[in-house]
Amino acid sequence: MIKAEPGHFARFEPTPPVIKYTDSPIAAWADDGHPMVVRATGLVRADSISGYMGINSDPDPNPTPYAFLPGDGWAVQYDDGAVPLVAWAMCTYGGLDATFAVPMVAKEEASYPSGSISTLGAPASAAESVTVVPISEARGLRAP
Question: Is 143 a domain residue?
Answer without folding.
Answer: no
